[in-house]
Amino acid sequence: MRSSCFSYLRLGCILTLTFISAMDGAEPDFIVATNGNDGWSGKAFKTPASKSDGPFATLQRARDAVRQLKAAEPGRKRPIVVQIHGGTYWLADTLVLEAADSGTDAAPIVYEGAPGEEVLLSGGTQIAGWREVSAGRWETQLPTVASGEWNFSQLYVNNQRRARPVVPRDGYFFVAAQVPPSTGQGHDRFRFHPGDLRADWHNLPDVEVTTFHLWTMDRLHIKTVDAEQNLVTFTGPTHSTEQGALKPSTWYRVENVKEALQPGEWYLDRKSGVLTLLARAGENVATAQVIAPRLPQVVRFQGSSQAPVSNITLRTLTLAHNAWNTPARGWGHPQADASIEAAITARFAQRCAIEQCVIRHTATYGVDWSDGCHQNRVEGCELYDLGAGGVKVGPSKLGWEPDTNKWSSTTIIRDNLIAHGGRIFPPAVGIWIGHAWSNDVSHNHVFDFYYSAVSVGWKWGPGFSPAHHNLIYNNHLHDIGQGVLSDMAGIYTLGESPGTRLQLNRIHDVSSVRYGGWGIYFDESSSNIVADCNLVYHTKDAGLHQHYGNNNTVTNNIFAFGTNGQIRLSNPAKSGPILIAGNIFYYNSSNLFELDRMHDRMEFRRNVYWREGGPVLFTNRTPIETWRLREPDALVADPGFKAPHAENFELATKSPAIKAGFQPFDISKAGRLTRHDRTASLPAVTRVFPPGPPEPPKPVNVTIRDDFEMYAPGQPIMLFTQEKNQGDILKVINTTAANGKQALQFTEGTGREPAWRPHIYTHANFANTRMRATLALRVEPGAQLNYEWRDWPNGGKYAPGPSLTVKADGTLTANGTKITQLPTGQWVKLNIECGIGDKATGTYQLQVTLPGQPPITKTDLHYQSAFKTITWVGICSFGEVGTTFYVDDFLLEAVK
């Protein structure tokens, strides 16, 4: 395609940086080599050899020598170069570069690999001492693990990440039921389906449960497993009481289960210090290179707001094997795992660069330019096999960072390969920009992530955000999501962002697990952003989604082959204007609009629409003639792509889209400018997380039981939705109970509408079975209530089944039939037996047990003939202000 868009991009001014590199052929100031000695001069060997001449052995010694040279040459006008010869450097400690290690604009500090030599800076340790205890089963003893000095959660064999054993092998479990959290905790336990978790697993506290919550994942250590109650409790809660709920729609799997060990996997017994590795077919562990990580960072730029570190370049190095272990109370984060640091982590760094480096086999992000980082670069690098994401810019404090000294800016992320991420943290992002402005993200190739490729902005809702004037252009972003998480995009934006532009990006193959596999996603309050000349295709959901925002412009893009839609405009009540003009929407599925929510401030002009094999229908399935009332110059025509199903979206010269004003653009330069392919020879990076499951079907005939003993007094109950009017009391109390120590209190407040509150209900799913229900009830004077089962189809009128009512004078009726008079201030027991569906007889039995009296049994109580299944069960209070009743020992179950 001819390019007419690139001239739109305002490159330059504050993003134009100058970096001085070592002069070709110049002798380095210091040399580091694997056969060096920190007692030598750091110079090349001389002939004849001098006792003092020769390279250093460590980078720390070279760093200290640079400090001395700076002091000796304060007016230096050329770079100080530390040249590192080939080989592996097993770092004893993180290389920390502080303000004292800074260069100047005239004399930057350069740490670079010797030309043509492969330099590996490893934060790990090579594991030896293997013995084959049985065929293919290898073990070695690690005393520092047994003593508690060392622990690791990643392992690499012959440059390939190996997994810990996991169950289930190829998929996920579902939470069986939500239960209240432990006292003082968030969501820290759930009921599991029988057999999914076991109390007898080896070293149970080292087993980790990874729970998935749409766009996030938590790592939780097991505290206890109660096999009788099918209840697992963790050492700490999930990351959020709202978004991190542990409920039946939550899917999870279990890592580090020794009993599930398979060939190619490993297990570290922290108590004994024994590391076990099961070899793959044909693999000899005794001769393999096995590396376990030890250092949390390989390199750390550590400045401060008063004394930043500056003018340091790392060039042509390989950095690998940093460590991360799940904390004792577990780990989770609300989005993008943005607070995770990196193999190269920087704080208050300026005019520093990572050039032509390989960053691989990480436990975390690759590079993190965080607090107070300005005018830095990551360029020409390959970030490969990443525990989290690729590059982060800016502080990650959720929503807002009040310390403006920590805001970051003017980072260049250009010409990088960023691939195979999220291997430990699937919510991580290829390139993430938080509270940072005027960054240049260009010509990167980002692929194979489980969440978004590029994320820009870190403020939810309206108001100023530091993330503005960010340029995202000429990137190739694909194979994103892969069905593992939801609510993602090739490019995701958040918050107000004037001056931000998304241009000439090629985005394709974005797939979510349940919803939200979008191409370009303007999320909450994304505003004043321009997206132009992008090619977006093969997305599960719409190529373009505006959640809510203001004054965004989407022009001259191609959106093609969105499976569930091409455009989504949601939450219009919060949205301001959006201009969608001069784009091509090309598809072969049924929907143009993924969601029919729109208002008059959403403006469409000159767009071209074409659907292969069918008519183009707009909002509410209306034809083009109706749509033209909104967009008079809309064109429905085949734009004439050369080979769209072969991913060739070049337009013929006589394309009707061009005649309508579409300006062709050249997308061939999206992606890397250069191809070093230093990682091409590495073994393939295997998938870690399989595609997640769809929303589970509502299980049939699952028992609903609650005795309210698991709650702390005042905690909200889990199995029921609760609704209250003003002043209503609906809470767990420990002052009375039918059995145990606690019950559920209902007290009428001053709010009177709707009349049935306070109220609890749950959506059940019982069919074709005999039912049994029990309920303990205590009424106080004047209390009025109703307990009812309903057959209530979605959107339909409900049919009541068994329905018990207590009147203000204590009269108990069952579907209008008087049963008995209930005493006040005493617990009574109600028992219902009833067939439903093909077990129905049209009647049910009620048994009422009053204190000190024989049971009262009624056997021919009738319900509505339309009642067939139980989809809803609830308890409503109808009393006057201040009237109270209590409920305990709730049970609804199918009888086998």
Describe the structure concisely.
By secondary structure, this protein is mainly β. It is built from four helices and 77 strands.
Q: What's the SSE blueprint?
A:
Elements: E1 30-32, H1 59-72, E2 80-84, E3 87-90, E4 95-98, E5 109-113, E6 119-122, E7 124-126, E8 131-134, E9 137-141, H2 143-146, E10 155-157, E11 160-162, E12 166-167, E13 173-178, E14 189-192, E15 208-213, E16 216-226, E17 231-234, E18 251-255, E19 266-269, E20 274-278, E21 290-293, E22 299-302, E23 309-310, E24 312-315, E25 318-320, E26 342-347, E27 349-350, E28 353-355, E29 358-360, E30 365-369, E31 377-379, E32 382-384, E33 391-393, E34 408-409, E35 412-414, E36 417-419, E37 431-433, E38 436-437, E39 440-442, E40 445-449, E41 454-456, E42 471-473, E43 476-480, E44 488-493, E45 496-503, E46 506-510, E47 517-522, E48 526-532, E49 535-539, E50 544-546, E51 549-550, E52 552-555, E53 558-562, E54 567-569, E55 578-581, E56 584-587, E57 593-595, E58 602-605, E59 608-611, H3 624-627, E60 635-636, E61 641-643, E62 648-651, H4 656-659, E63 704-706, E64 721-723, E65 729-733, E66 743-747, E67 759-762, E68 769-779, E69 785-791, E70 799-806, E71 811-814, E72 817-821, E73 827-836, E74 843-849, E75 856-862, E76 872-877, ...
Parallel strand pairs: 1-2, 2-5, 3-6, 4-22, 5-24, 6-25, 22-26, 23-27, 24-28, 25-29, 26-30, 28-31, 29-32, 30-33, 31-35, 32-36, 33-37, 34-38, 35-39, 36-40, 37-41, 39-42, 40-43, 41-44, 42-45, 43-46, 44-47, 45-48, 46-49, 47-50, 48-51, 48-52, 49-53, 50-54, 52-55, 53-56, 54-57, 55-58, 56-59, 59-60
Antiparallel strand pairs: 7-21, 8-9, 9-20, 10-11, 10-21, 12-18, 13-14, 13-18, 14-17, 15-16, 15-18, 16-17, 19-20, 61-62, 63-77, 64-67, 65-66, 66-77, 67-76, 68-73, 68-77, 69-70, 69-76, 70-71, 71-72, 73-74, 74-75
